[in-house]
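User: I'm writing a tutorial on reading structure tokens. Could you give me a worked example: one chain, its sequence, then its tokens, then a sentence or two explaining what the tokens reveal?
Assistant: Sure. Here is the example chain.
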Amino acid sequence: LVPDLKHDWVDGDINLDDEDRMILNMGPSHPATHGVLRIVLTLRGELIDDAELDIGFLHRGVEEIAEDFGYHKLIPYTDRWDYLAPIANNMTYVTAVEKLMGVSIPERAQVLRVLCWELGRIQSHLLGLGAFAMDVGAMTIFLWTFRERELIYDLIERICGARFTTSFARVGGLERDVDDAWLADMRSFNDDFPKRVDEYETLLTRNKIWIDRLDGVGIFTKEDAVSFGLTGPNLRGSGIEYDLRKEEPYMGYETYDFDVPVGVKGDCY
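And here are its predicted structure tokens:
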């Protein structure tokens, strides 16, 4: 039952009787939150008066599991830490272990890790953009981004036998080397991908619905971004040019020539 939304506004608050007020538990099983939190919403019709966040519903005790399993056996768990980019988590974890142990790895393994990291980043951003656009109201872009994501799955499957839960990294190197055919297909994907990004731009960047719903919404200023501890694309979106691959290079990133994209307004657009 949705009450009549023709109400009076008093000092910015909605002046309605308590009978029009509803408390709604959103989650922790709600599909939009993946079980990680519960939101207690106070609703008046379709308007949200208040939202109380209750976090911490998805703690899986990984620290304790790591203590029991040890460095090597924990690698498969790293796939699940961020399922948008499983293979990138593999690389990050073993690199941290190697740093603790003072272990260096061959240059070829470093290069292959960088390839896997960047495939993971693209893989993550594809799902992020596609799902975000679909939530905003553009279905087609979700199908397009998954088209390229499937190509990345194909590449990953060929090097480790799995499309999603990879477990490809090893402390001191990788599970196995890649062949020349894989490298050729990797280059082919790399050459073709910018054209696909142009397609995303054509569909979204000047789309009226996309602009109206995102431009000027949810602004984080530079000061806000630093204060809240934002990192990665969110930090750069607020106009701060900071990328660890540039500022504190690892795994040979200092040998690569690349630009750091930086936003202006720090809004959703």
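What the tokens reveal: The radius of gyration is 22 Å. Residues 69 and 75 are 10 Å apart (CA to CA).
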